[in-house]
Specification:
Blueprint lengths: L9 E4 L26 E6 L4 E4 L9 E4 L10 H23 L9 H11 L1 H17 L3 E6 L1 H14 L7 E6 L4 H29 L4 H21 L7 H8 L1 H21 L4
Helix pairs in contact: 1-2, 1-4, 2-6, 3-5, 3-6, 5-6, 5-7, 5-8, 6-8, 7-8
């Protein structure tokens, strides 16, 4: 053993379900003039090209994950399962919120599930897809992983008191990326919600006021994207805002101002309640 770092080692972007402090890696690859993200995991590739990592903060139960070197549009079977689980739980929690909790379930519950799936779930899914595709564009491995604890907590809260506060999961990123690249991966999510809000607002201007059902779908589409964008721009914990602010404060404050404006416009111009 020479004490040199194995060249097969990769780094993983901050895991939102892992809060342990980690030391800054010391590697010759870091001395290239680029500033890297400091809060990262160290993982190892085995001889078969698999990432050996303990996701979700579990110890002693490391997962073996195949790196995909092909299209950025690729989704693994495991990732599809996690996306389906998170989307289903999120949709169910939103429907429970519309009902005011499990104590007030009505025959309209299936309709609320469908409304949530059509108008609100895309804000969450496309936000995560944006992180994934940008990360893979920069040559990183990136897959969504659901957080079972966050899903359980969110469902119980929605069922008991009719409020949605849920951490469905996040895109896990592995690769050697610069601070700038990590910042762009982070900002892709909120920017996607801004774009979706813009599409919804255009639809509102063209179609609003003709069919009440379309008004409801577009209205919740606007609310979902505005709230998700603004929430993720907060510069705390594992949220996108903290990573964006670390990368570029001008871009952070610009995006935060836009997110606040979307919430204000939706609150004052869109009447769905």
């Amino acid at each position: 053993m020479t004490g040199e770092r194995d060249p097969r080692a990769w780094r993983i972007d901050e895991d939102p379900f892992e809060t342990r402090k980690r030391s800054k890696p010391n590697s010759p690859s870091m001395n290239d003039g680029n500033t890297r993200q400091s809060r990262i995991h160290i993982v190892q590739l085995d001889q078969d090209g698999k990432v050996i990592s303990g996701f979700f903060g579990t110890q002693g139960t490391a997962q073996s994950i195949h790196l995909h070197q092909g299209s950025i549009w690729h989704f693994s079977v495991m990732e599809i399962r996690h996306l389906a689980l998170a989307t289903g739980a999120f949709t169910l929690a939103l429907a429970l919120m519309f009902e005011g909790g499990i104590w007030n379930i009505s025959p309209a519950f299936p309709a609320y599930c469908l409304l949530s799936l059509i108008s609100l779930a895309p804000a969450f899914l496309l936000h995560e897809f944006a992180h994934k595709f940008v990360a893979k564009y920069y040559g990183c491995w990136a897959e969504f992983r659901a957080d079972p604890g966050g899903l359980r907590f969110g469902l119980i809260l929605a069922a008991v008191i009719g409020i949605v506060f849920m951490a469905p999961g996040a895109v896990m990123v592995a690769g050697n990326a610069t601070r700038s690249q990590f910042g762009k991966i982070a900002v892709a999510g909120p920017v996607t919600n801004m774009a979706l809000w813009g599409i919804g607002y255009g639809a509102w201007l063209i179609l609003g006021g003709f069919i009440w059902l379309i008004d409801i779908v577009i209205g919740y589409w606007l609310w979902g994207n505005a709230i998700l964008c603004a929430f993720n721009m907060l510069p705390f914990g594992p949220l996108d805002g903290k990573k964006i602010k670390t990368w570029s404060e001008p871009i952070f404050f610009t995006c935060l101002s836009i997110a606040a404006a979307l919430v204000y416009i939706t609150q004052t111009k869109i009447a769905i309640f």
